[in-house]
Amino acid sequence: MGWGVNTMTKPAGVLHPFFSEKAILFPVLLLCGIGITMVYSASSSIGLEEHDSAFFYMKKQVLFFCISLCVMFITASFPYKLYRNFSYFILFAAIFLLVAVLFPALSVKAGGANRWIHIAGITFQPSEFAKLALILFLGYSLAKKQEQIRLFSVGFFPHLMVFILLSFLIIIQPDFGTLVVLGMITWGMMFIAGVKLLHLLSPLPLVIPVLYFFVYKVEYRLERILVFLNPWADPYNAGYQITIP
Question: Model's pTM, two decimal places?
């Protein structure tokens, strides 16, 4: 996939990695295109009312999309082995940002949650960076430990501890949705790497109390699930986004 580690010269006849990985590039472009369409559909009337342009929010989304493509192209220009050397540094940076979001002087509070950091006019969500950091860390760590991957103390426990640390910092924001995504990433990558299924299933008894305290006992989260299961129970209020034609 791409160029050698010791050279930044592209071999003749080899596509740039950004274009060579079509199995990754095409779904990304497709999902981004759908997202831009959805942004226009959801915000055209608001944009027209508040900014005299139905395309106001869609233009912002397209701008971010173009910036993201440039970032993708630049990051794909470096050998993937380069990133594993920085996987721990990136993980520590993600943890630092997740801690920083807890300080009112740096964070932005919205809807009762502290999930964003505002610095120099730029607002971003550290939990999104944590997803990337977790993927890079797990990819490097699991690959390095392949010979002992089926040992509980090597293949499962250390990665579980990293997941728990990130989860604690995210759930107190609170952001239960990102916690679920991190869990899917962690268990999915450990399963693919060959961690024993018995080890992966060992935390299963904790799922019920977690769901009870963080979903059933939290009214708005429970309401979201009930609305998803039966949006027609309240089609003009809670279920409006699902039932709207």
Answer: 0.70
Which residues neighbour 155 within 8 Å (Cβ) at sequence distance 6 or greater? 142, 145, 148, 149, 190, 193, 194, 195, 196, 199
Q: For the ranges 54-68, 126-140, 214-228, which has the lowest average pLDDT?
A: 214-228
For the chain, the domain total comes to 2
Q: Is the pLDDT of residue 175 over 80?
A: no
Task: Tell me: cis bond preceding 235? Omega within 30 of 0 counts.
Answer: no
Decide which of 25 and 229 is more confident.
25
Classify residue 242: in a domain, yes or no.
no
The partner residues of 124 in beta bridges, in order of sequence, read 117
Cα–Cα distance measured from residue 45 to residue 40, given in angstroms and rounded to the nearest whole number: 9
pLDDT at residue 218, rounded to an integer: 60
Q: Say yes or no: 58 and 91 in one domain.
A: no
Q: Which range marks the domain in which residue 70 is found?
A: 1-84
Radius of gyration of the chain (CA): 21
Query: Is 26 a domain residue?
Result: yes
Task: Give the torsion through C-alpha atoms of 136, 175, 108, 49, to 10 deg.
Answer: 110
Identify each DSSP E strand in the chain by its residue range. Answer: 107-110, 113-119, 122-124
Question: Which H/E stretch holds residue 36?
Answer: helix 22-51
